[in-house]
Design a protein that fits this description.
The structure is a homodimer. Chain A contains nine helices and 32 strands. At the A-B interface, helix 1, strand 9, strand 17, strand 18 and strand 20 of A face helix 1, strand 9, strand 17, strand 18 and strand 20 of B.
Chain lengths: 661, 661
């Protein structure tokens, strides 16, 4: 199992130091005996990574100079997974993106027959950054005399500075075209995190293929802010007495390989380098029926544009999943802090640059939560009280992408909801300024694009947009999207009211939907081929909860054009195996209009077919002093909620069990 | 203390049977020794209720025919509370609304000097319903030959039927003016709750002053639905192993009289007959400073309009707080189901019709919740992991208003947030129809205004709107509302962005705000007189989270005109002692345009003064089969979040304490 294979390949990946550090984190004993029943949707195993690489090498496609930006399971066709029974054999395919010099190739590999099914060059793309790009960047900077001299002029020796390898985006700037470039804002090292000590006014653009500093800018001198480190805070706040989760008889979930079962739920999990946590094959046991709800759900892209025109800042318009990898940025979860001590912690294997893999220990945690709330209740003066306590299951991953820390939770409830949650913590992107307080004459100008959060530091305004790809399969593969609009109407008598007018979206154009609370609509996925309770078409709603944000970038802004999935909160497409990432496959320095805008231009039919929902969750972030230095978690969530799917409240039959009375 | 006084007065109130039943509910031992330090904002004690009544009687204002619809503390002036020190004496005033025959009087009583300060008739109003109104309604119906005969014709003896005493609203119907009327839809009794067995097509309008059935309608025959009771569900769902909250060293909060302290928070709680749970005097201990945030917060009104034109249904447009009383509808909370077993349960005394009081046992619970989430975290590849687990405090009440069950939570977090939550469970309002399934020919017509949730039952479409009155005092009494709009702008270089344009609302008209995610704005209350961190004006944001709904009723609809607070999600008024209820004081059969629309017509100044926020939380409810028979809890919440109030993340100094590693 994963746990025994920790660190085997880490040394090769260039992340050795980091991984050593990870080893310091404790790992809980599994609450459940884990078996390892294989499943067709399992991620590639350590052996399979190595095997795929060996096949490519034997076939003569790769050599020692080859680097893998992608190496992952090529998902088998949905219909083959659906007819598969546990214990049956299945074939395994892998997909790779290989960078060789300035060329990029896509490969499809059959691990069963050990053959390369396809080897195709993809032109004019820059695949995701890899660890070697980071290492090269740091080396090139350290060897660059001009850069070292400029830092020395500021009083910093090379080992007193750390730089961030940031993507450039694409702003149609001719001198940046056709090169693999990394932009490097730097920070002064010191006590605690570097991110509160930005060195403004100086950066390099490094060409990691040409092995040189391609551009160097030294255009302003701002004293580096000197705020106390987060970790040295002193206070007289009293420690709380312990409060934990009490499970005297153990956990209620089981893990068999990558299949998790809890209460009436079953689903498959895996951690992929790009998308991070992927849940698949989500079913609910409804009486004697295993009913399908969600075939696959994951983060497909993540767009974080900052709102400052400074030459070092304007390009901070990250597509984190496609540029860095959401899973590749996975971090170990700390027992008792990141997840309760009662959690089961699971490792994950992530492919490295060389076609092998390294293990992130405690990359995922699974735990149950007594919400403290009832699942339902009713008190009646004559017939008494009835109610049940609510428990939910949480599957969580965490990723640190530079300064930011993200959590992705998939929460499963006893009343049939699936609730993805996005947590954001870590450090805001801080910009150094002269202003020390809002009373300074420079304050208004310095805080034009952010908030002064500490003397000399601006938390720069920014957004976070997450595209969730949700391959829904409500009671089967063929589904439709119904827009159930709440429409004001005069009704008989003295009253007006809203009534529901339902419309099935026929094509992609009819399903580009923005959330508007003044003209509310229910977004309902349903199966028109099945007869649900009292002959309703069984369905699930996508409910945005607190995760709505409109992009405020101009449609012509290149940053927007690379992340145009943010134009709508909901898109619906017919399933296509190669449509996985909302902003396109190759987003690093990538082209405009890729992904959803390009795919949906055809306006394909989406009625009663295998449809995929793309939900753009988002939030604007105007930083506040309270976000400094490390911000409190900001949680945003949406949910899939059953709607005429079950024949009654699915939490009704929760056992009265361990209530106190 | 309250716990010892259970049931003392219950027998008088006509709620004896119900209260007997309440006694069956277990009550936990308090986790903390309770003392009883009096506070000027404490609710009237049992003695004070009796004393106030005695003073009115001695002064000759009331007699045996007098009935109290209101009897409560008259809040002392804010400034007197703020200078008060624990242990100091303070005077107590009471406010009463007394109904004598068809007349209504308001009284102000000085309990210290035992004098009646004011006794004033209020003309042309119908004060809130009282228990005697319900009892009279049932008696009048049972004695009405026509009604009894009509039920007999349907096959029901009087003791096989239960009717709901529903308010009529006000639809400018001349024959209803000037009478105290109650409308009575009825249900067939049987196993489980009556609410799944409505008897459609027959109702009475009872005049509880004239002691007669004023109107009787018998206009349709619909067979009563026969669905299994919620409580007799059988299933093979496995009981989960116990999962609870573990607090080996006890709770972290203390209760002193009505003052609760937890972590850095302190606040006062009470349960009022109309508003339910009121929190007051909310402070945060910030280093050596006790900083004020919220002087008082409570539900000020609750509007639940149903969307069916049927003659029995159109008038279901309840203003539950003003018509029935949100606190008066309080129910005991069940340990282990409604609240965790680790909760402290507190009783509450509610005035009865006669100017005495009865006790609701376990009316409030207080508990801590390990959220399972970190308060904050950051992982860095070189400098390691830092984070803290998050705990929150919940103070909860529950109210059952007919078929619906509501929870109001006030949640306090370690990072300085106050998060009010609304939970809704219980039974939807079900309407009996002929349709048994959506395949029936009658299905479309029968479900025009709701959802077929079971054979013969429509869950009728409706809304819930809650007006929260939030008397904010950020670092002092005088505050302003700043609208910080996120405005798209061309910035230098290739980029566009949003920038913040702040505007202080000068008068009430500038602070009638609707939430629009396409043109986002931050709603910020701030104190322009104080210098906060780095000289920001300290502030708090009101953030709607998932609690936004626009009313879809026509502005001319009488139902809307009685609840016009729903026109805007946010209103701001200058503090006025007599402006407490968003739809006005006398909402039962009440006039149009009362409360916020009337008060703000003056367009008073609200800049740098003592302001009150009125937040209209809301949600549309299109019922679903899964809401049947008892709906899973639907939670909606908003929050007050510090914004440049603290000088850093206020959760930063949480002790590393009982982390697992």
């Amino acid at each position: 199992m994963n746990a025994q294979m920790k660190f085997r390949k880490a040394a090769k990946s260039g992340l050795m130091v980091s991984m050593m550090l990870l080893a310091a984190c404790a790992s809980m004993d599994p609450l459940q005996e884990m078996q390892a029943e294989p499943h067709p949707l399992d991620p590639l195993t350590l052996n399979e990574y190595t095997q795929a690489t060996a096949i490519l090498r034997s076939a003569g496609y790769i050599n020692d100079a080859s680097r893998f930006t992608v190496l992952e399971l090529l998902d088998p066709p949905k219909r083959s997974v659906q007819v598969w029974q546990p214990g049956e054999d299945f074939n395994r395919l892998a997909f790779a993106v290989v960078k060789q010099g300035s060329q990029t190739f896509e490969a499809r590999i059959d691990l069963g027959s050990e053959t390369v099914l396809a080897w195709t060059e993809v032109e004019d793309v820059q695949p995701s950054l890899i660890v070697e790009d980071f290492i090269n960047t740091f080396r090139i900077l350290a060897e660059d005399e001009e850069f070292v001299a400029a830092m020395a002029a500021r009083g910093y020796a090379p080992d007193e500075v750390a730089c961030s390898p940031m993507t450039l985006g694409n702003y149609n700037i001719p001198r940046y075209q056709g090169r693999r470039l990394i932009k490097t804002p730097c920070y002064a090292l010191g006590e605690g995190s570097r991110f509160t000590r930005p060195i403004e006014g100086i950066f390099a653009v490094v060409d990691v293929e040409a092995n040189e500093v391609y551009e160097f800018m030294d255009y302003a001198q701002i004293p580096v802010a000197d705020n106390p480190a987060a970790t040295t805070v002193s206070s007289n706040r009293q420690a709380l007495r312990e409060i934990g989760i009490y499970q005297p008889d153990g956990a209620n979930f089981s893990v068999n390989g990558h299949v998790i079962k809890w209460d009436n739920w079953s689903f498959h999990y895996r951690l992929e380098k790009r998308s991070g946590l992927v849940v698949s094959d989500v079913h609910y046991q409804d009486g004697d029926n295993q009913r399908s709800i969600l075939y696959q759900g994951a983060v497909s892209e993540l767009f974080v544009p900052y709102m400052d025109p400074d030459t070092m800042w304007y390009s901070r318009t990250f597509l984190d999943a496609g540029e860095y990898g959401f899973g590749a940025s996975g971090t170990p979860l700390s027992p008792g802090t990141d997840c309760p001590l009662t959690s089961l912690f699971l490792d994950a294997d992530i492919p490295d640059d060389f076609g092998n893999a390294f293990t992130i220990p405690n990359a995922i945690c699974i735990f149950e939560r007594n919400t403290g709330d009832p699942a339902w209740r009713h008190f009646e003066f004559d017939s008494g009280f009835e109610g049940r306590p609510a428990v939910e299951l949480v599957v969580r991953m965490g990723a640190t992408i530079g300064n930011y820390d993200y959590f992705i939770d998939w929460v499963f409830t006893q009343d049939g909801r699936i609730k993805p949650r996005i947590g954001a913590s870590g450090y805001d992107g801080y910009k150094g300024v002269l202003t020390q307080s809002m009373s300074d004459a420079t304050a208004q100008a310095d805080s034009a694009f952010g908030t002064l959060v500490a003397p000399g530091l601006i938390g720069v305004n920014h957004d976070h947009f997450f595209s969730f790809r949700l391959d829904v399969d409500i009671d089967g593969i063929n589904n439709s999207l119904s827009l159930d609009r709440l429409v004001p109407r005069d009704i008989a008598g003295p009253r007006t009211a809203w009534v529901i007018e339902s419309e099935i979206a026929q094509s992609e154009a009819e399903a580009k939907i923005n959330y508007n609370p003044a003209r509310p609509a229910i977004w309902r996925v349903m199966n028109p081929n099945q007869s649900g309770p009292v002959d309703h078409a069984p369905g699930y709603l996508l409910r945005p909860l607190n995760s709505i944000a409109y992009t405020l970038l101009d449609p012509e802004d290149p940053a927007h054009q690379r992340a145009a999935f943010t134009q709508h909160q909901l898109w619906v497409t017919p399933y296509a195996a190669d449509e996985r990432y909302a902003a396109g496959n190759y987003v690093n320095q990538g082209d405009f209009g890729m992904g959803l805008p390009a795919w949906t231009a055809e306006d394909r039919a989406i009625e009663n077919t295998d449809i995929v929902l793309w939900y753009s969750a988002g939030f604007h972030h105007a930083p506040r002093v309270e976000d400094f230095p490390i911000m409190p978690f900001a949680w945003h969530e949406f949910e899939l909620m059953p709607y005429n799917f079950f024949s009654r409240n699915p939490a009704l039959d929760i056992s009265p069990q361990w209530r106190g009375n």
